[in-house]
Design goal:
Distance between the termini: 18 Å
Shape: globular
InterPro entries: Thiolase (IPR002155), Thiolase-like (IPR016039), Thiolase_C_2 (IPR055140), Thiolase_CS (IPR020613), Thiolase_N (IPR020616)
Radius of gyration: 20 Å
Helix content: 25-40%
Largest sheet: 5 strands, mixed
Structural class: alpha/beta
Organism: Parafrankia colletiae
CATH superfamily: Thiolase/Chalcone synthase
Oligomer: single chain
GO molecular function: acyltransferase activity, transferring groups other than amino-acyl groups; lipid binding
Protein name: propanoyl-CoA C-acyltransferase
Order of helices and strands: EHEHHEHEHHHHHHEEEHEHEHHEHHEE
CATH architecture: 3-Layer(aba) Sandwich
Strand content: 15-25%
Number of domains: 1
Keywords: Lipid transport, Lipid-binding, Transferase, Transport
Length: 398
């Protein structure tokens, strides 16, 4: 297979863009990526457009990518719409990688865009709730509104209930405390303060996080990723195309995408083992990591899953400062989903934008001084006790 490189990236700020459409956001990120790569739209024959819940929030179905990218110059290329829960963006990137790696094209682009804000917040929560097995919830009663059952009567995403349940089990098993969960938020906000595209840039103390409104114990509001909008894009290409684009070269060492099986080994364990094997690295080699912290406890759980910390020692690793600004391995230097934001269809692409900028030395005050190897971990939906989709991507500065 052909080595694949990231030629250029682009990303909008993540926030509540009440006055912008999916098309506006997607076009913005796409144009940035094309400019960064030094290529024109007609030089990109394959386009993968990721959007997760546009049908539920905006009503646009079937041809979301063709509509969103209508005025970018990309129409006329092979354009494939990608929907794979919160892993939609990384799934689009995986397909772009496969296209170049297989020799089908010199370049391919992955664009992720999402509009989650809506005047009726219940619409946003219904969109989140669709990422579970609704048949399982509704059983054989096809008269039931499965989405309504999944959402329930609360004022939060169903996934926060799942994260809270997992957090309680994790705390019981490891001795982690609610203060440890708050410390995740503090770290994320410290990074986000230096990221002009992050949704939340105000720094918080542990005490302020704990004193915030409770969503479902042990989660307070800052421990939950926010509703927001945004887009991110990246162009992948061959080494020849990367050399033509100029600047430091960033190569894809491994790209793994898998689905959940509900039986051990679960998606995370399988994908991590495969990615490390393909790349010929282990967790100790990583300089920067973007992981799927849709809620604060997930970061601690994924420290163990990614082998950054031994089982039971995730909270200890966090408290040591090794994953913080100035530490040895930056985790979620973008601010993560908690602070950077989580417009779900864009999140996977945004993780790869952050890693690319770190490896190219373009991250300003949050720059890791020796960034050479980065990993992105992006999970989507749930199928039983497993992630419905899970992606691991490893990038290397060469």
């Amino acid at each position: 297979m052909t080595d694949v490189y990231i030629l250029g990236v682009g990303m909008t700020p993540f926030r509540k863009h009440w006055d912008r459409t999916v098309r506006s956001l997607a076009a913005d990120a796409t144009e940035q990526a094309l400019k960064d790569a030094g290529v024109s739209a007609d030089q990109v024959p394959y386009v993968y457009f990721a959007n997760c819940v546009g049908g539920l929030v905006t009503g646009q179905e079937a041809i979301r990518g063709q509509v969103a990218l209508r005025h970018t110059g990309l129409l006329g290329s092979t354009l494939i719409n990608v929907e794979n829960a919160c892993a939609s963006g990384s799934s689009a990137a995986h397909l772009a990688w496969m296209t170049v790696a297989s020799g089908q094209a010199e370049t391919a682009i992955a664009v992720g865009a999402e509009k989650l804000t809506h005047p009726d917040k219940a619409v946003s929560f219904r969109a989140y709730a669709s990422g579970v097995d609704l048949d399982e919830i509704g059983g054989e009663d096809y008269a039931v509104d499965r989405l309504a059952v999944a959402v329930g009567t609360g004022n939060r995403s169903r996934f926060m209930d799942l994260y809270a349940e997992n957090a309680r089990a994790f705390m019981d098993a490891t001795g982690a405390t609610q203060e440890d969960l708050a410390r995740v938020v503090v770290k994320s906000r410290q990074f986000a303060a230096h990221n002009p595209r992050a949704q939340f840039r105000d720094q918080l103390t542990i005490e302020e996080v704990l004193a915030s409104r409770e969503i479902v114990w042990p989660l307070t509001l800052p421990m939950c990723s926010p509703i927001g909008d945004g887009a991110a894009a990246l162009i992948m290409g061959s080494k020849e195309a990367a050399l033509a684009a100029g600047g430091p070269l960033v190569r894809v060492r491994a790209s793994v995408l898998t689905s959940g099986t509900e039986v051990a080994p679960l998606a995370g364990e399988r994908s991590v083992a495969k990615a490390y094997s393909l790349a010929g690295v282990d967790a100790s080699d990583l300089d920067v990591v973007e992981l799927h912290d849709a809620a604060a406890p997930a970061e601690l759980e994924y420290y163990e899953a990614l082998q950054l910390a031994p089982v039971g020692e995730a909270a200890k690793l966090l408290a040591s400062g090794e994953t913080s600004l100035g530490g040895s391995t930056y985790v979620n230097s973008s601010g993560g989903l908690l602070a950077k934001g989580h417009p779900v269809g864009a999140s996977g692409c945004a993780q790869l934008v952050e890693l690319t900028e770190q490896l190219k030395g373009r991250s300003g005050a949050r720059q890791h001084p020796r960034a050479r190897l980065g990993l992105a971990h992006n999970a989507g939906g749930s199928i039983g006790a497993d992630s419905a989709a899970l992606s691991i991507t490893i990038l290397e500065k060469v």
